[in-house]
Amino acid sequence: MPSLRLLKVLLAIGTIVTVLHLLLSPNLPRGYQAGVPPESPRYVYHHYTTANHYPNAADGAGQTPNATANHAPIEAALALPPLASTPGPVKACFVILVRNRELFALRASIRQLEDRFNHKYHYPYVFLNDEPFTDEFMRYITRFTSGNATFGVVPTEHWSYPPWIDQQKAIIARIKMGNVIYGSSESYRHMCRFNSGFFYHHPLLAEYEYYWRVEPGVDFTCDIDYDPFVYMKQRDLTYGFTISMKEIAETVPTLWETTRQFMRARPGLVDPKRNTLGWVTDQSLETYNLCHFWSNFEIARLDFFRSEKYQAYFDYLDRAGGFFYERWGDAPVHSLAAAMFLPREKIHWFDDIGYVHQKIENCPMDSDVNYGKCTCNPMSNFYLLMPSCTREFKALDADASLDISGLLKS
Ligand SMILES: Nc1nc2c(ncn2[C@@H]2O[C@H](COP(=O)(O)OP(=O)(O)OP(=O)(O)O)[C@@H](O)[C@H]2O)c(=O)[nH]1
Ligand SMILES: [Mg+2]
């Protein structure tokens, strides 16, 4: 029967393509590649207990985790400086901007964060809101937080229109952007502007060196049995992320041109040898490729944002008005700042932290991590999909630093 023969041919072609894909793909999780027999559960169980994979992890904040195993090749290639042996306690907190009505979504996320990580470390929480938190909110949240919790209100001047913004023009922009996600939202714009240029100035964050941003509704899908703050401090890292992707172009039509103008206006601020601009643009610096770190998860140094250059960049953007006339997100703003001001070795992909935000997830693909600690499917990792920019980030080397002198001449 011809249709049966055709089916058999198609099946044979499908099998050959699948086998070739499995053999050639460098991105499949270890232990899932053809030719690598999956480790037997017994083997994984006995050899990768928490205790011997991260020997000091249970010791608490300020101790030295040995969480280097699956990062060693990247770090060796980047010739990072030797680890600081005793980083000392890290002044760090979770920072959560949230509305009262998001109580239960946040409670679920906090419970997971505690179960997966913080019940051993007890880092404090800073909750921020553009209006006062209700008693109910604070009572329900503190039932689950193992570290100190403080609740603050955002100052009005950090959540309102600066005097140079034409509010009529802002309304028209919102109407025109009705077909873009959050394009018509006024509060979303205040939120993005606050997260771009003000959160790190909040007095409740003054005492901290690092923060970890958390949002209501996110999931943590793996045990984190080392301390990411210590990990960052030991390696002198500035910015950590889990997911990267392309921004919606309609939200940032002039963000890159404004950023180029900023680089022209303040030529001394971008070091041609110590930037990551190669990740967000091409050699000619002509266009933004829309890559950005997804800022709903961030572990970062606060002094990066408090620095003169970051503040100069934010002020420049704020004057240009794109937070209101377009819909500039804090994610591309943070990312373009990181690209201008940070070399590759200061930025870290926490590939071992299982994290889900709005169904998009980072799921560890290293079977040593995934098998015993995670409840996510490594094949669902956003890293494997086209809109992720993490593959390109991983491939960055010293050439990622772009010399901006050509830009300054044009
Ligand atoms: N207090 C307060 N927090 C807000 C407001 N809008 C957003 N947020 C918080 O800011 C963060 C980002 O807002 P989200 O609505 O999650 O924005 P997003 O992550 O881009 O989009 P989705 O998660 O897909 O809705 C979350 O922690 C929100 O709780 C607001 O008007 N007031
Ligand atoms: Mg969100």
Automatic annotation (TrEMBL):
InterPro entries: Glyco_trans_15, Nucleotide-diphossugar_trans. SUPFAM superfamilies: Nucleotide-diphospho-sugar transferases (SSF53448). It comes from the Eukaryota. The keyword Cytoplasm does not apply. GO terms for biological process: cell wall mannoprotein biosynthetic process; protein N-linked glycosylation. GO terms for molecular function: alpha-1,2-mannosyltransferase activity. The keyword NAD does not apply. Keywords: Transferase. Belongs to the glycosyltransferase 15 family. This is Alpha-1,2-mannosyltransferase ktr1.
